[in-house]
Amino acid sequence: xxxxxxxxxxxxxxxxxxxxxxxxxxxxxxxxxxxxxxxxxxxxxxxxxxxxxxxxxxxxxxxxxxxxxxxxxxxxxxxxxxxxxxxxxxxxxxxxxxxxxxxxxxxxxxxxxxxxxxxxxxxxxxxxxxxxxxxxxxxxxxxxxxxxxxxxxxxxxxxxxxxxxxxxxxxxxxxxxxxxxxxxxxxxxxxxxxxxxxxxxxxxxxxxxxxxxxxxxxxxxxxxxxxxxxxxxxxxxxxxxxxxxxxxxxxxxxxxxxxxxxxxxxxxxxxxxxxxxxxxxxxxxxxxxxxxxxxxxxxxxxxxxxxxxxxxxxxxxxxxxxxxxxxxxxxxxxxxxxxxxxxxxxxx
Length: 348
Description:
Number of helices: 11
Number of strands: 13
Low-confidence stretches: 1-6
Distance between the termini: 61 Å
Order of helices and strands: EHEEHEHEHEEHEEEHEEHEHHHH
Structural class: alpha/beta
Shape: globular
Strand order of the largest sheet: 3-2-1-4-5-6-11
Mean pLDDT: 90
């Protein structure tokens, strides 16, 4: 009897959230692999991208009726890569909960109902509880209770609990990816709108216009190029691995490394002062990034990616500085892609 992994023409993979920062990278990585026969990219809005072996369809995971449609779309798939996530509106956590948590549960149930044997889920460093900032970092056994005040962390942590039960299903292989911050050049317009707002001109993000980098207590974080993360997802689809994987590139970034990269100087700034300014701007609707997310970032642990290196066979091809440089280049030049989330918009 033929199994799905032996289907003539290669594996069939469905990717949710296929038009965003990570999704476009994952779709391309999968489509370029000869073991993959076809990729179905799902998103709320159909993109204008034309990629060999990739078909597109639309689904809104926030809607209750989407589960029935999803089940049909997943029929015959060898794996589902679940990336769909809604970051905004940050002032309406009920809306993001409907899309992210309830929508993810609809995906999980559709995977089970349609008999898909593998689920690769996009978790995050944001799912982790506050932890040490020193290297070598925490492994995948560190608690995943998130930072409860930040909706993003709260939702990622909740889904970790859901998957604790879902992965007990004997016929479904479940993988959880927990990457650091993901950047690439063509995703810069989307990320600028998410965190800084659509009215911040990308042309102002220039090293010569940046007077200093604030040296904040707890400002140590990890960056990974999106295409390197996409490679980890490709490996997770094709290899018989299970469980969580931390994904991060070296070096760990802090104020001093950022200052070197930007050709600026560092200035020690009280954390409370920056948080107060951010909270004031957020309440005034001047910026979309909430002060609760700021609190979370300063408490996130440094990740140890040894398990991904040894069991997944994954190593990033780019350094953290190269990933961040690509992001800055994309912001300044307004580059994007022909998808609704990544549409480039030069402002100013």
